[in-house]
Amino acid sequence: MATRPRSLIVAAAALMVGCAPAPAPGDAPDDSAVVVTTAPSDTTFRAHGQEPGWVVAVFGRDSITFVLDYGDLRFTTPAEAPLLEGDTTMWHATQDTLEVDLRAVRTLCTDAMRGDSFPARVSLTVGARTFDGCGRWPTETAP
After folding, report:
1. pLDDT digits (tens, 9 = 90+) for 106-143
2. b/e burial code for range 63-82 (CB count within 10 A of at least 16 → b)
3. pLDDT in tens, 88-110
């Protein structure tokens, strides 16, 4: 099992909350670090998960940014209007020939690593791979 540098894990955690990370003492700058600096008001939805670490930021109807596999796979796609079905919001995107689906269900979700609560349980499908995690709309507070 590959290990990830501490600075990459710190950077991924900072992306989840919408701020730029400070490097850990003694860490050299790492070009592979996940850094997306956006204010919560810039996004309409943010989601994340672990093992492997991933983060998704939806920017209204403009774009969706995907950072997967601890930052090894990154891409931004145009955002299609989300589909709403009851308590579920779904986004679909295409990156080259790769189909991507993001599904957020309004139900309490607890982050597996930190124990933080989120108002949405999230499923992200990228091609044949599926990732589970938590998410929130920035206009909502934690449950």
Report:
1. 999 999 888 999 999 999 999 999 999 999 998 876 66
2. ebbbbbebbeeeebbebeeb
3. 999 999 988 889 999 999 999 99
Tokens representing 137 are: 């709309």
Peptide bond into 52 cis (omega under 30): yes
| DSSP per-residue letters across 57-102 | EEETTTEEEEEEGGGTEEEEEEPPPPEEETTEEEEEEEETTEEEEE
